Amino acid sequence: MSDDAPRSEPSGTASGRRLPGRGLAKGLAVTLRTMTRRSVTDQYPDALPELPPRSRGVIGLFEENCTVCMLCARECPDWCIYIDSHKETVPATTPGGRERSRNVLDRFAIDFALCMYCGICIEVCPFDALFWSPEFEYAEEDILDLTHERDRLREWMWTVPVPPALDPAGEEPKEVAAARKAAERPDPPEQPGTEPGRPGGRGPRREGEA
Amino acid sequence: MTETTVGIGGAAGSFGAGTGQGTDMVLNIGPQHPSTHGVLRLRLVLDGERIAAAEPIVGYMHRGAEKLFEARDYRQIIMLANRHDWLSAFSNELGVVLAVERMLGMEVPARAVWLRTLLAELNRVLNHLMFLGSYPLELGGITPIFYAFTEREELQRVMEEVSGGRMHYMFNRVGGLKDELPAGWTGRARTTVARVRSQMGRLDDLVLGNEIFRGRTRGVGRLDAGTVHAYGVSGPVARASGVDFDLRRDEPYLAYGELADVLRVVTRTEGDCLARFECLLDQVHNSLDLADACLERLAELPPGPVNQRLPKVLKAPEGHTYAWTENPLGLNGYYLVSRGEKTPWRLKLRSASYNNVQALVELLPGTLVSDMVAILGSLFFVVGDVDK
């Protein structure tokens, strides 16, 4: 290969002719220098990685919060959440009151073979029933076992970390802002029928109750 | 350089014959082949060791992304859009949200704009480091990829802390970003950028100065500016051929307009494999500078939100727009046509790799089979981005 046009050589070789093999020697020097340092490789199965709390490893289900509203299943871009439910009637609590019906969860499963780990289900859940956990060790021999049923999803809940503190330069989260406003609001004049300490009979608004 | 012509059986009669005469040897490279990334298939017509004609056969990873977009709302599209080029997920998301924001006439908070710029540049570094490591690997040097991946790991840790993902960030939303930064993240990002910068010299010394590497890439696979324009080649591959075009400077989006003094458009005129590699390496240095500049500006900005409150059902008004961005691999464009529904009526995706790979038709004929690997690797493409 002929060296035709003059072109910029890497730093340190500005003066005309290069010593043959100089580039190779420099490369070897890099290798030697690295050999004297500690290895950066984590020995994975022995040393577990430290994952940040936002890490999207697996989805945990907090079943008690689920109202079977189906929002997660509908918003999922590849429809990998399966929910079955039935209605139950709750007898009236007061004499002469109306019977109410309520949804009961029969099945909640996420097919992690299909899941794209986008987190939209967690984002849309209005009742905080779904959470990310950084756990990732759930590879299976059989693809069918990647469909985690409700008991398995419930187990992941124990691994959900506390969310990280937020940057002080950011805006106050709206839950905190709403709670603070409610606390700072002067007590409204006593009205007959309202319990003391509950201004206007409604607490701070929760996210999702638009 | 030695050239051997070996003829076996019927091919023996066609010594010295060009294409069309006698029996041509047709060689399939791929779709599964160690020297191709992913499933690109090349159909080479050989004359001895020389390539007479080359044709990239694409589509093995076609998923119909554009059709899938039409049945997804704008948040779900982000999930699909960040996957066609899996090495530049953040920049891909950016194109979609910029298009929708333009249709809505939505103003994005200043902190979100600067953060997006910062994350897009970190994503660019991640993408380039991948190719800076894998290209020497294809040419027979095993070590550089380990150095490149050490740096990638550091950056991925920073990206994972903020977004939760290591590759598919899902961190852009129409109107801003998904979440506020975790406390102390900017400091950690700054340290990481500094550490990556301090280690970049290793790649200079190990690869760029290496005589064998230079011998295999210099003067190989020359792409001239005319071909660049004819095939719509873009990004670092085009800039290595002297085409001085970078959307970050020429049609600034995000905060690039205010970063004009830091942004340096890296160009080379040689157009060979070495020039393309040098472009990539230089861009990493510049992207790290840009990331630092973004972090400085972020610290000066007054406190504020990183996103807009969105309606429950987000609909883009009727109309159409074209948003293009300077992705790590080249121009990435989204042509969005909306009929006022919550899904787009059509979302055309122009991806950089698709056009860049077409240039192989011009680049490969006349070169040796052994150089094919060098040329193929130096076009820096992601097969998902070709086939989408």
Automatic annotation (TrEMBL), chain B:
It comes from the Bacteria. The keyword Transferase does not apply. Residues 139-312, 314-388 form the NADH-quinone oxidoreductase subunit D domain. GO terms for molecular function: NAD binding; NADH dehydrogenase (quinone) (non-electrogenic) activity; quinone binding. Its EC number is 7.1.1.-. It is found in: Cell membrane. NDH-1 shuttles electrons from NADH, via FMN and iron-sulfur (Fe-S) centers, to quinones in the respiratory chain. The immediate electron acceptor for the enzyme in this species is believed to be a menaquinone. Couples the redox reaction to proton translocation (for every two electrons transferred, four hydrogen ions are translocated across the cytoplasmic membrane), and thus conserves the redox energy in a proton gradient. HAMAP family: NDH1_NuoD (MF_01358). NDH-1 is composed of 14 different subunits. Subunits NuoB, C, D, E, F, and G constitute the peripheral sector of the complex. This is NADH-quinone oxidoreductase subunit D. It comes from Wenjunlia vitaminophila.
